[in-house]
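Morning. Coffee machine broken again, so started the prediction first thing and wrote up yesterday's gels while waiting. Chain of 158 residues, entered below exactly as on the submission form.
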Amino acid sequence: MKKVVGEVQPNIRVFNQGSGYREWEWIFDSNDISALERVRSGDLYFTVEVTALVEVRENGNKFIAVTGNQQIKISESDWIRFLQYFGYSTKYGITLPASLLNDKSWIQAYEQLDVARGHMQRGMTYDALRQCLSVIESYTDVGNGRGGPYSPKVWGTS
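Came back before lunch.
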């Protein structure tokens, strides 16, 4: 997959040849993380491409083009620790046990909660819980002849 993810924010010292400073910040937002988690199947490999026009105001103004690229690998375990540190979950955090893979009702429930899992992967816990509640309420809805989500009959207690 080739997609731009994150935003690089360098410090001006990065471009100062004599400073010895070579650090920059690579900032991911929740949409970047969600896009990566949809396609990730192990370690992550990135190509960081830099294209910049730098104005040098020493001995007269001049512009210098800075270009280059570098490969970066982030191991799956490092990536998962990164996500968990910042409160995200991963697509591997919620799976069906092998014993339930042929149970149609479990598969249906798993699929109906896919939107909620997507919210959780992006760290949107409130939206995930609201989506779960909507699925539960729709399952127990009066229109299905079950008496509504808050009826004791639905939960087998009447």
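The radius of gyration is 24 Å. Going to sketch it on the whiteboard this afternoon.
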